[in-house]
Each structure stands twice: as C-alpha cells, then as structure tokens.
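Project standup — Tuesday

K.O.: blocked on the structure for the chain from last sprint. Re-posting the sequence here as requested.
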Amino acid sequence: MADMQITVTPDTFRLAEVFTIARGSRTEAQVLTVRVADGAWQGWGECVPYARYDETLESVTAQIEGLDLPLGRSALQTVLPAGAARNAVDCALWDLEAKRAGKRVWDLLGLPAPAPQVTAFTLSLDAPGKMRAAAARHAHRPLLKIKLGTPDDMPRLEAVREGAPKSRIIVDANEGWSAEVYSELAPHLLRLGVELVEQPLPAGDDDMLAEIARPLPVCADESCHDRASLPGLKGKYDFVNIKLDKTGGLTEALALRDAARATGYRIMVGCMVGSSLGMAPAVLLAQGAEVTDLDAPLLLAEDRPEPLIYDQAGVHPPDAALWG
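H.V.: unblocked you, prediction finished:
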C-alpha cells in the first residue's frame, strides 16, 4: 500500500424538486467523491460537507488532500475528526478492502447479509397546501418524514395528515423550535399520530428536554455526532440519529450504534442529501434500526451508475458495482 493515492472530486446532482428545511432551500446536492487506489484496486466513498458544522467543499477537500499516505482505517480515526472528510475516506477504505479481499463489507465485519429496509420519505418545508398535495402524492409510502421548524407549523402538520391519512409520520424540526413552541405542539403531534420528533431544540440549548414532558420519543440529530456525544444526551433524548457524515464514516458509526444501544437509546439511521454512493454504507448500518431515513436518492433527478434499488420492500443493499 506504499503507492496509495487519494483523489477528491466535487460532483453535483440535480434534485427532482426544490428541497427546503428550516435553514434554507437547495436545488442540487453538492458532494465530494473520494477515490483511494493502491496500484491494483480502487475504492470510493462520498461525503456531503455541511455548513451547519462549518464544513465547505474546499475545507473538506483540504483535509483529505492533507493526509499523509499510506493510511489505514485505524489510523484515520485519530488523524481526522468526526465529519465529512473522514466519512468519505473511511468508506472508500472499506470499499477498497472489500475489493482486495473479493468479499462484501458485511463479510469482512462478520455480519449477516443485509436485507432491504423500509425508509422514510421526506416532505420538505412548504406552505400547508403544497405540503398537503405532496403528502397526497406520497400517501402510498408507509413512513413520511415532515420537515418543520417554524412557529407556524400546526397548519402544516394538519395538512400532511389530511393528505396522507394512513402513513406513519415522523417530524424533523432541525433545531427550529423553542421549548415553548415544542410544548405547545407536542399534544397535537400525538393527536395526529406522529411517532417521533427529531431535534426540536437547538443543539447546545437542549437541556430543557430533560425538564419538560416528552410525551413522544425525541431523537438527537445535531446533538449527536459520535460516541463522545452520548454522555451529553442523558435524560434528554430517546433516539439517536446516526449519519455517516457526522460520525466520520462507517467505522465510528457502527461503534456509535452499539454504544448507543448499550446505553438504552433506540436507533435512527439518517443521511445528508447525497447520491446512492453516500447511502450505500448506511444501508448496512441501518440493519435492525428502529427508523431508517435513507431516501436521498429518491429526491434526486440523477444518480450514480448502478444506483441503490428502492421498491415496496424499501432500500436494498448496494450491488458490489456501487460499493462494498
């Protein structure tokens, strides 16, 4: 592996529709594709730099290009912090290892072959009428995730339930509510059959969750990055949302999943808005999770070659031609 090389390429994927959360809107997914080659084999991975975590395409590219090579997965955990850069390299190294061994990643880990997972489908933040129409278009999906996070979300909740009366619903406030707004909305969330609320309060300002009633499960997203986050969640959250771009790759994500379960948390596996390459390792991570939210490729107008398959059974494990 002395001749290991890493290349970083920015890629853009158009979205099928404008995607809006409490922080803003986007019309495309901007990702970094990382390829790791050892002279005979090449593995690849993807990450989505996220401005919320002070990441840019340029800063993450610089982190990756500044690595001293050769480098293995164990050393990677110490030389890069949890985040997008480490995620893309870690997943590329897993893919490279699988190709060199002629095995799938789950075989390398000693895990059973993964099965399809039913995934949430996300409805982006919009006017109530438009969200009702979107819910009706996707009412055949078993699980809908609603992007909220404003003081005026009640009409949106009502509209989505009207549009999709039989779908299970979870909501994501993206840190957009105050404790007062959440306390007012909580009874209505229950009335409308919402099963989970994700990150209702800002990370770093969520201590009130330990003091106010939590009538339905609350999931930590921005408040949970890796195993070091777990002590700060005690008494405030019931779920943790594990995303590869937060943990810094599959290696830490698997460790976080096991540590969170041992501590009593239930598991949600989520994603940034990226391509099938970014989702592929997360399908393995999602095995056994209570909630899977890996719908990003369904939001795209274009995707990678050999993309993930989505059907009535959910999102299927990746073909070896895609990853792992």
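K.O.: great, moving the ticket to review. The chain has ten helices and 13 strands. Residues 84-101 form the longest helix (18 residues).
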